[in-house]
Amino acid sequence: MKKHRLALFVSGTGSNAINIATYFNQHNSVKIGLFVTNNATSPAIQVFQAMDIQCEIIDNIQAADGKFLIDLCAAQTIDHVVLAGYLRLIPAAFIHAFNNRIFNIHPALLPNFGGKGMYGSRVHAAVLEAGEVESGITVHLVNEHFDEGRTLAQFHCSVDQNDTIETLRIKVQVLEHDHYPIVIEQTLNLENHV
Ligand code: GAR
Asked: Is the full-model pTM beyond 0.85?
C-alpha cells in the first residue's frame, strides 16, 4: 500500500510534532516526509535532523507565500499537512491546494477560546480568567477562517480551582500527546476506505 506522506509545521518547541513523528516511526501506512518551521531556534529541528527527516526553516515572507509552500510540499510528495503549534496564517492558495487535508490542534474546546491571537498560554489564561470548570483540546481541519474548520475530535480535562496556566498547560499537553496522532491516523484510515 502507498504510504501517506505528512508534513509537520511548527512555530514553537515542537513537542507535538516530535510525538507525532515518534508515533508514526516505522508505521505501515504513514511517513513523515517534511518538517517546516518558521522558528530557527526550535529545539525540534535537531530532533528531526537526527531522524533523517527533511527540515526547512522558512522566513515570514516564505510563510505567507502559498506557491512557495506548495512547491516545498510537492518536492517531498506530501499529501497531508499537520499544524502542531504553527502560528503563521496559512495562505489561501495553500489551503485550497490541500483542501480538507490540513490538520490543526487547538488547546481548548472550540469554538470557545479560539480565533486570532489565541494560542498557547494565552488560551489557558483566558480559560482560567473565565472561570471554566473544564477545558481540553480540539483537533480540526483547517479552512480559510482561523480555528473554524470541521472538528474531528475533542477531548476534555477538568479545570480545578488551584490550577495555574502552567498546570492547565500540562494537563492539555497530556491530552494532545495521547490523542493527536491517533486522530490523524483514524482520519487517514477513513479516507482510505471511501
Ligand atoms: C500546543 O498546545 C498547540 O495546541 C498550540 O500550541 C502548542 C504547541 O506546543 N496551538 C495553538 O495554540 C494554535 N492556536 P508544542 O510546540 O509543544 O507542540
From this structure: yes
